[in-house]
Design brief:
Elements: H1 3-11, E1 18-23, E2 29-35, H2 38-43, H3 51-59, E3 62-67, H4 71-85, H5 88-92, E4 100-105, E5 112-115, E6 127-134, H6 137-150, H7 165-168, H8 186-203, H9 207-223, H10 227-243, H11 246-267, E7 275-284, E8 287-297, E9 300-301, E10 307-310, E11 318-319, E12 330-332, E13 335-338, H12 341-353, E14 363-367, H13 370-382, E15 388-394, E16 400-407, E17 410-415, H14 421-451
Parallel strand pairs: 7-14, 14-15
Antiparallel strand pairs: 1-2, 1-3, 4-5, 4-6, 7-8, 8-9, 8-10, 11-13, 12-13, 15-16, 16-17
Helix pairs in contact: 6-10, 9-10, 11-14, 12-13
Length: 452
C-alpha cells in the first residue's frame, strides 16, 4: 500500500474507539489492532520507522475497521480476532513483548490472575482456562477491577482464619479463602461459580449472553415476589452495561492523557506523545555500572518494553567537587569520585538505537543536566531521529526540581513547580522507575560478585 493510499484511507477513519485490520490482496489478515481513537492511532503508522510496520504496510492493500462502544470492547474484540486468525504481523511485531492472558485456576473456588505465560510459576494452582491474548494490560486491569466489584472472586494465595480485606471492601465473598470452608452453603458456592462464569464470558465477548441471563434471573425473582433481590440484580445489570460504555471507560484515559497533552504543547510536538522512555545510570565509582531504559505507553508503565544494559566500556572515574556531590558518588579517602555517567549514558543510547525494531519514542527523559542532554541529542542528530530529549535536573538532595531542555539551540530551564501537578508527577514517576530498574540490576550484579 502506498503511503498516499494509506493517507486517503485514514481520512475516512472516525475518531471513535474500535479495531482496525490490514489485509493483503487475497483478503488475508496481516495485522489486527485496537485504538481509543482509530484515526489518531492509524495515522501514527505514517511516521513509523519500525521496519516491520513499514514492511506490513507495503504488503497491505486493504484497511478495514469496526467501531466499538468503548476501548474495553475494542480490546476484547481484538483479542477474539487475534486468537481466531493469528495474523502474521501480530506475531512478528510482538517478538519483543508478551501478550496478556487471563488465567482461571482449576480449584473449588477458582481464582483469576493476569499472566504472560501459559505456565506460570507465580500461580501455584493448576490453570483450568486461559482467556486471551490481550495486547494492552492497562485496559485489561481496569476491566477486571470493575468486574470484580460486580462479580467478587478470591485472589488470596493462602487460606486464613478470618475474612480477608477484600471481603470487607466487597471484592471477595469471604468464605472462599477461609481454612474452615464448611460454613459455605450450597447457594454461596453456586454464586461464586456464577461470578467466575460471568467474568469469563464477558472477557470472551459474550456480554449479551451474560446480561440476558441476569435479566432472566431478575424476572424470576420478581415473579417469586423477591423484589428487593430483583432490584439489586437490576442495579448490577445497569452497572455491567456501564462498564462497556464509551464515556465511563475513557474517563481514565482522559486523565492519563492530560500530562501528555501538556508535554505536547510544552515541547511543541506534532502529536500527543504516546511513548516516553526514561534512562538512568547506576554505579559506584564506575564499578558494576548498569543502565536502564523504561517505557511509559499512554501514561502507563509498559514493563514488557523495559531494557537493562550492563556497561561494556571502561570509563575513568570522573573527579567532581564536593559541592556537586550526589547520592551516587562515593567518598574515597577524602577525594570525591564518581563514574563517568555521561559516557555510560552515551553507550546506552547508542545500543538502544541499534534496535530499530523497538518502537521509537516521542520523548526521552534522562537523569542529568546540560552535559547529558547534549550527549544524547548529538547521538540522535547523527541518527537523524526526531526525538525530543529532556533532562530532569536535580538539586543538592538529589530530588528533581527542574527540567532542562533545548529550544532553538538554546538551553531552557523550567521549574517543576511551574508545571501542572499531573505532568510533574508523570515525569517524576518515569525518572523514579528508571532509577529503580537500574539500581535493582546494579544490586543483582553486585550480589553475584559478592557470592563468587
Amino acid at each position: 500500500m502506498q503511503l498516499n493510499d494509506l493517507r486517503s484511507k485514514i481520512s475516512d477513519l472516525p475518531k471513535n474507539p474500535g479495531i482496525y485490520v490490514f489485509k493483503d490482496s487475497k483478503g488475508k489478515l496481516l495485522y489486527i489492532g485496537k485504538a481509543i481513537n482509530l484515526k489518531g492511532r492509524v495515522s501514527a503508522y505514517l511516521k513509523s520507522t519500525d521496519t516491520r510496520i513499514i514492511r506490513m504496510i507495503e504488503i497491505a492493500t486493504k484497511l478495514e475497521y469496526q467501531v466499538t462502544d468503548s476501548d474495553i470492547e475494542a480490546l476484547i474484540l481484538e483479542s477474539q480476532l487475534i486468537k481466531k486468525h493469528q495474523p502474521q504481523f501480530n506475531i512478528v511485531m510482538r517478538d519483543d513483548k508478551q501478550y496478556f492472558l487471563v488465567a482461571i485456576t482449576d480449584e473449588e473456588y477458582p481464582r483469576i490472575f493476569l499472566t504472560h505465560q501459559r505456565k506460570s510459576n507465580r500461580i501455584k494452582a493448576p490453570i483450568k482456562e486461559l482467556i486471551g491474548p490481550f495486547t494492552q494490560g492497562s485496559s485489561l486491569k481496569i476491566t477486571l477491577k470493575q468486574l470484580r466489584r460486580l462479580f467478587p472472586y478470591c485472589t488470596c494465595k493462602q487460606l486464613h482464619n478470618v475474612p480477608c480485606l477484600n471481603y470487607h471492601i466487597g471484592r471477595c465473598l469471604g468464605f472462599c479463602c477461609l481454612r474452615d470452608q464448611e460454613q459455605a452453603t450450597s447457594d454461596m458456592r453456586q454464586v461464586y461459580q456464577r461470578n467466575i462464569r460471568a467474568i469469563r464470558d464477558l472477557l470472551s465477548g459474550k456480554r449479551s449472553s451474560v446480561i440476558r441471563q441476569l435479566e432472566q434471573e431478575m424476572k424470576s425473582l420478581g415473579d417469586k415476589g423477591e423484589f428487593e433481590k430483583a432490584m439489586a440484580l437490576q442495579s448490577k445489570i445497569e452497572r455491567v452495561k456501564r462498564v462497556f460504555e464509551h464515556a465511563l471507560i475513557n474517563q481514565s484515559h482522559r486523565e492519563l492523557a492530560k500530562p501528555l497533552i501538556h508535554l505536547q504543547k510544552l515541547l511543541k510536538l506534532a502529536k500527543i506523545p504516546a511513548r516516553v522512555e526514561g534512562y538512568d545510570i547506576s554505579n559506584i565509582s564506575g564499578t558494576h555500572a548498569t543502565g536502564s531504559m523504561i517505557v511509559f505507553e499512554n501514561g502507563n508503565p509498559d514493563k514488557n518494553s523495559y531494557r537493562k544494559f550492563k556497561i561494556r566500556q571502561t570509563f575513568s572515574p570522573k573527579k567532581i567537587s564536593v559541592g556537586n556531590l550526589t547520592g551516587r558518588s562515593k567518598n574515597l579517602g577524602g577525594q570525591v569520585r564518581g563514574g563517568n555517567d555521561t559516557g555510560m549514558l552515551r553507550e546506552v543510547i547508542e545500543r538502544r538505537l541499534n534496535h530499530p525494531e523497538w518502537t521509537y519514542p516521542e520523548i526521552m527523559l534522562i537523569d542529568g543536566g546540560k552535559g547529558q542532554l547534549n550527549a544524547v541529542q548529538s547521538i540522535l542528530d547523527n541518527h537523524k531521529l526526531d526525538i525530543r530529549v529532556i533532562a530532569l535536573t536535580k538539586n543538592g538532595k538529589h530530588v528533581g526540581d527542574h527540567l532542562t531542555m533545548k529550544v532553538s539551540g538554546k538551553f531552557k530551564l523550567i521549574s517543576l513547580t511551574k508545571l501542572p501537578e499531573s505532568t510533574k508527577n508523570l515525569l517524576l514517576a518515569v525518572d523514579a522507575e528508571a532509577h529503580r530498574f537500574a539500581i535493582n540490576y546494579y544490586r543483582k550484579l553486585h550480589r553475584k560478585q559478592s557470592i563468587s
